[in-house]
Amino acid sequence: MKTFFVYIMASKKNGTLYIGMTNNLVRRVYEHKNNVNEGFTKKYGVHRLVYFEPIEDARAAIIREKQMKKWKREWKINLIEKDNPDWIDLYESLL
Q: Can you count the helices (H) and strands (E) in the chain?
């Protein structure tokens, strides 16, 4: 069974946030970090993976992503800081 991921990227601690969903977290974060695609993360320098959660179902992952995008900024920051209080880049831990 395929695993999907909902993730949060940040420009810096308490900086600009981006929420996304993918079935290949390593590849997708690499794309963000290396500005492979034009878009929000390239424009605002959002290159630090600060949160992710695995989800077993694509539909559930899409719902979770949309839900999180509607959250107040404070809720997003609380989610990040619960497990990653220093906002370290989690990308290396995936490799």
A: 5, 3
